[in-house]
Each structure stands twice: as structure tokens, then as C-alpha cells.
Design brief:
CATH class of the largest domain: Alpha Beta
Bound molecules: adenosine-5'-triphosphate
Distance between the termini: 40 Å
Structural class: alpha/beta
Largest sheet: 6 strands, mixed
Shape: globular
Number of helices: 7
GO molecular function: ATP binding; ATP hydrolysis activity
InterPro entries: AAA+_ATPase (IPR003593), ABC_transporter-like_ATP-bd (IPR003439), ABC_transporter-like_CS (IPR017871), Metal_Ion_Import_ABC (IPR050153), P-loop_NTPase (IPR027417)
Low-confidence stretches: 238-244, 248-260
CATH topology of the largest domain: Rossmann fold
Number of domains: 2
Number of strands: 12
Mean pLDDT: 85
Family: Belongs to the ABC transporter superfamily.
Keywords: ATP-binding, Nucleotide-binding, Transport
Strand order of the largest sheet: 5-6-7-3-8-9
Protein name: ABC transporter ATP-binding protein
Strand content: 25-35%
């Protein structure tokens, strides 16, 4: 019998921002063990801010977030936007990946043989095992993105959070990445920010529109009318086999293209 989905994270009436700049108001969202949630919204709408709340990098100004941890496994694996990584930091691919296990080092601060072979196994899965000893400054954007994915997965998290994982990666790896996420979703919840509505509708199970607050959409199929009713200024444009999106800037409503 299939296990009942478990509630892993509960965001309750959270308002958050930076200093006097309130970015998100009264956001509520529960993340269950079988979820695959796509987060969309205009630039500056607060998607990354929501992710920062989820990974504990930002505290709510009001409301609260409950993390339901169970067992020894880590709750969250996080793949940040590649642009947030300082590539000049002198650290090897292997070390970056193992740093996803930070709290699980042995008593002498060493990683175990099993942890190292798990890292190599992940590198093989995404085709970067030959880069193991390279320093991250020597990698292309797409290679770095793969390293960050391995780092997010090394702790076997219950929730995998990805902030625009398709930045820098080529079409081939993008497809492989989403197939990999689909398989991973059998054993972990996934929350993914993406500007690509085509991807969202093909892979995720539900959609959250973030634009100053959060509107939760119980399905992966969404129409322009529904987006408008969620106050999420994104238009789906039929353009070949995959719908493309035009995002409207949150503050000044300029339009610009996000096509892949
Ligand atoms: N560290 C910070 N300090 C002050 N303001 C910030 C900070 N980070 C983000 N903001 C502001 O918060 C608002 C929301 O930013 P956020 O990065 O969450 O948006 P986003 O939806 O992820 O945008 P994008 O699609 O461009 O990545 C923006 O107006 C941004 O300028």
C-alpha cells in the first residue's frame, strides 16, 4: 500500500521582506512528501524570497514556518541560483558536493568512504565524475549547475528545492534533469522555481504563483484567465509545441521575453 503523504513544511500567514521593503504578505503553503510544486511569477515578485524562507536564510517578519523533521535524514536539499555562487572560492568539485553533508561529518571532520562514493555516484549520474578534482572556478555554468545539483542531493533530503535549475544548462541536460527530478519525486518532495511555463506544465504537479503574495493552483494545467485571476501577470503564448511565456515586471509592468 502506498504511504499517505506527510506534511513536511508548513508556512503559516508569513509576511517577509528586507528592512522596510515588504516583499511577501500573508503567504500560506504546506509542502507534502509527494509534492512537485512549480513556482512562477514576475521578476521581483518574491520567488527567491520565498525560497530563502524555506531554507532558513530569511526569517519571517510575522507568521511562522513549521518544519516537520523525521528520522536522521536531512529535511532540505537546496540548489541555489548559480549566480549566487562565488566561483573564485578555491574549492574542488568533490568538496562542494560533500559540503551538502556539512552536519554529518565524522568526529574528526572527515567524510566517510561511503559518503565519498555516494558523491562519485551522483557525479556519474549527471556526467561530471571526470571533473571531481577540478576547482569550481574552472567549470562552465552548466557544469557548475550539475555540481550544485549533486550537492543538493547528497544528503538524501526529504524536500529538494531548486531555484531556476535550467539556467546555463543545454537542452539535452535540461530534459535529463527534469526526468531525473520526476524519478526523485517518488522519494522526495520537489519545489522548483522556473520561468519556463512549458516546463512547469510538463513536469510539476501543482503551481504556486508568487507576486507579492502566493496563489496556489491545485493542478499543472493553467490558463491565461486563471493566471490573471491569480494576479500573476504571465501570459502563455502558443509558440510551437511548447508554450512560451512573457513575464511582466512586478513594479513597472514592462514586458520582456523569457524564452528558452
Ligand atoms: N537582500 C535583499 N535586500 C533588499 N531587497 C531585496 C533583497 N533580495 C531581494 N530584494 C528585493 O525583494 C524583491 C523580490 O525579490 P526576489 O529575488 O524574491 O524576486 P524573484 O521573484 O525571485 O525575482 P526574479 O524572477 O527576478 O528572480 C525585489 O524587489 C528585490 O529587489
Amino acid at each position: 500500500m502506498k504511504e499517505e503523504p506527510k506534511k513536511l513544511i508548513e508556512i503559516k500567514n508569513v509576511t517577509a521582506g528586507y528592512g522596510n521593503n515588504i516583499v511577501l504578505r500573508d503567504v500560506s503553503l504546506s509542502i507534502y512528501s509527494n509534492d512537485f510544486i512549480g513556482i512562477i511569477g514576475p521578476n521581483g515578485g518574491g520567488k527567491t524570497t520565498l525560497i530563502k524562507l524555506l531554507v532558513g536564510q530569511l526569517k519571517p517578519l510575522s507568521g511562522n514556518i513549521v518544519f516537520h523533521t523525521k528520522g536522521n535524514g536531512s529535511l532540505i536539499g537546496y540548489l541555489p541560483q548559480a549566480s549566487q555562487i562565488d566561483k573564485n572560492f578555491p574549492i574542488s568539485v568533490m568538496e562542494v558536493i560533500l559540503s551538502g553533508l556539512l552536519e554529518k561529518k565524522g568526529i574528526f571532520g572527515n567524510y566517510s568512504r561511503n559518503q565519498k562514493s555516494a558523491a562519485v555516484e551522483l557525479m556519474k549520474q549527471v556526467g561530471i565524475d571526470h571533473l571531481k578534482n577540478k576547482s569550481i572556478g574552472q567549470l562552465s555554468g552548466g557544469q557548475l549547475q550539475r555540481v550544485l545539483l549533486c550537492r543538493a542531493l547528497i544528503s538524501e533530503p526529504q524536500v529538494l528545492i531548486l531555484d531556476e535549475p535550467n539556467t546555463y544548462v543545454d537542452n539535452k541536460f535540461e530534459g535529463e534533469l527534469y526526468e531525473m527530478l520526476r524519478k526523485l519525486n517518488d522519494r522526495m518532495a520537489i519545489v522548483m522555481v522556473s520561468h519556463d511555463l512549458g516546463t512547469i506544465t510538463s513536469y510539476v504537479k501543482t503551481i504556486a504563483c508568487v507576486n507579492g503574495t502566493l496563489f496556489y493552483h491545485q493542478s499543472n494545467q493553467i490558463t491565461n484567465e486563471q493566471l490573471a485571476s491569480y494576479n500573476c501577470p504571465i501570459q502563455i503564448i502558443a509558440h510551437g509545441p511548447v508554450p512560451h511565456t512573457v513575464l511582466v515586471d512586478h513594479d513597472n509592468q514592462h514586458t520582456h521575453n523569457h524564452q528558452h
